[in-house]
Amino acid sequence: MADLDRRLVTATHESAPPSPATEAASALATTAPSLNVNFLLHHSRGALLRGMPSGAHRLLSAGCAGNWYFDWIEETYGRVPEHLGIEYYMPKPEGLPDNVTWITNTASDMSAVENASCDLVFSGQNLEHLWPEEVSGFLLEAARVLRPGGHLVVDSPNRLLTAPLNWSHPEHTIELTLDEVTALMRLAGFEITASYGVWLCRDPRTGEVLPFDPNQPTPGWSVTERLIIARDRPEESFIWWIEGVRRDRTPNAAATHAMMAELFAKHWPERVQRLVVPAGRRLQQSLQGEWVEAAAGEGGIVIYGPYMPLRAGRHRVTWQLQPADGTHSPMSAVCDVMVDGIAEPIARHEVQAGESHVSLEFNLTDTTFGLQFRCASTGGAGFSVLRKVELEEHIA
């Protein structure tokens, strides 16, 4: 943890030594350190791990990326006699601690774990990586493997903030809100016992969305204040944390699956539209939405994102464009589909004169992360592109 502490502050700047008469003013004038938001969140979650329901003899973790994860749990929650790790996407690491059993499976399939055999199930930043049937399946499996009185602890980014922040992670499907996960956990047989927030991103007095990056100016708020106030305001925080106890009642599996499917169908379209506009691009509002302009001779990316996952199948994405002069003049536009980590696009089209809608079909042989739907200018004739795409999944 000491190494993490050192990396939390990635750059510091010394101020001049304060004189006794002006110490307070000098302190205020000190240049603020540059903070790494990922380590800030990591340490905040670690603080909450220390307060999880104590005394677990058998802890199950859903989503454990490597040895560092088990070290983190032991340094914060404490050592448990038996720690089960469920992980599907990462290979089993070498040198696991002697109290760890690694299970290669999805979070919605814990068939290797006996009924009512666990004291505590922890899903840390995992729920948002799952597809809808996996979310509901995980909650029902957690209810099955926990003994009556055992605890489920889950934390995840909050869609009430990720959506207005236009924030994306290449492996996230949809993020849930605290109210939504509360309802789902109750359907799955849990009584909610506690909820907390991490990293305040909405001013509770004004409703204004606060920057995700702690280094951006936030008038009226310090980093410390945002961290402290977040704990009691999970709905206004970037991350919610929720704890529930397994009650001796039968989960309503059908209702849990149905609710999660409905939530996904409702909020997946918004996830698709988390497109990014590079700084300096001009935007124009219309009834259709925002048009992003590329002036004549102005090359480079015009829109990109949303850095999202898609399951295997054939898909189609469509952009809407218009020439700068409103006629059918040629446009120096290129549309493509990129995958994170792959240098070349998996689909690409150079826009021709008269094309107002550009569609690209692409095939994925497996679940793929980090998809981007980009539109770029080659620096010739100007055009505008609608900051919105149409995505059709699993086409024939």
Short summary:
With 396 residues, the chain is α+β, with helices and mostly antiparallel strands. The chain has 9 helices and 20 strands.
Annotated CATH topology of the largest domain: Rossmann fold
Q: What does the main sheet amount to? A: 7 strands, mixed
Count of discrete alpha- or pi-helical segments spanning 4 or more residues: 9
Helix coverage percent of residues?
10-25%
Strand content: 25-35%
Report the CATH architecture of the largest domain.
3-Layer(aba) Sandwich
Number of strands: 20
CATH superfamily of the largest domain: Vaccinia Virus protein VP39
Low-pLDDT runs? 1-31
Q: Span from first to last CA?
A: 51 Å
Question: Could you tell me the mean pLDDT?
Answer: 91
Identify the overall geometry. Answer: globular
- The chain-level structural class is alpha+beta
Q: How much is the radius of gyration in Å?
A: 24 Å
Task: Give a topology summary.
Layout: H1 2-8, E1 9-11, H2 23-29, E2 34-35, H3 37-49, E3 58-62, H4 67-76, E4 82-87, E5 100-104, E6 118-124, H5 132-145, E7 146-157, H6 159-162, H7 178-187, E8 190-200, H8 223-230, E9 237-246, H9 253-272, E10 282-286, E11 289-294, E12 300-303, E13 306-310, E14 313-323, E15 333-339, E16 347-350, E17 357-364, E18 368-377, E19 383-386, E20 390-392
Parallel strand pairs: 3-4, 3-6, 4-5, 6-7
Antiparallel strand pairs: 1-2, 7-9, 8-9, 10-11, 11-19, 12-18, 13-18, 14-17, 14-19, 14-20, 15-16, 15-18
Helix pairs in contact: 1-3, 5-9, 7-9
GO molecular function: S-adenosylmethionine-dependent methyltransferase activity
GO biological process, one term: methylation
Region (Disordered): 1-21
